[in-house]
Design goal:
single chain, alpha/beta, Alpha-Beta Plaits, five-stranded mixed sheet
Length: 163
């Protein structure tokens, strides 16, 4: 009987050990599967970032064209009555969408300033060229929902809008 007990004890031990091995190998296989999925997701993400990065480069190059609609704000910085309205009419006649026309915070601006609000400098260059202004400045501002601001200075009578 002793041998029977010993035999049955060792047999049950083997079965338990076999179950432990099966559970360990199942956990190990699940872990490998999960890690393989994570590696695949990371590889796909890296591929997307590389691919989308190239698209952004091409998109920025294609953005060098003048926008079909350039939204403009005209501000009177010289204090002469009616100047902002004349500039507004001139710009609208030349294809700009003037969304706002009002007075600037002060009336002692010496030279007319064209301000690029979006970082797409070709639009500001185009507006500056329309007016005959030689330079423009870039002041990106996400709070503005327009492309270009114009502050009319005391040199307004030398610009194309008035001539």
């Amino acid at each position: 009987m002793r041998f029977g007990l010993s035999f049955s004890d060792s047999e049950s031990t083997k079965k338990t050990s076999g179950n432990d091995v099966d559970i360990k190998s199942l956990v190990f296989n699940i872990t490998i599967f999960v890690l393989a999925c994570i590696i695949l997701l990371m590889s796909y993400s890296l591929y997307q970032k590389i691919f989308n990065g190239n698209q952004k480069i091409f998109k920025e190059e294609s953005d060098e064209n003048i926008s079909e609609i350039i939204q403009v704000e005209v501000l009177n910085g010289c204090g002469v009555s009616g100047v902002a309205e004349r500039f507004t009419e001139y710009l609208r006649a030349n294809g700009c969408d003037v969304v706002s026309s009002s007075n600037y915070s002060q009336f002692d601006v010496q030279q007319t300033i064209v301000i690029d609000r979006t970082g797409k400098s070709v639009n500001a260059e185009h507006v500056a060229e329309l007016l005959g202004v030689k330079n423009f400045i870039i002041q990106k501002n996400k709070e503005y929902f327009l492309d270009v601001s114009i502050i009319i200075g005391n040199d307004y009578n030398k610009l194309k809008a008035i001539k």
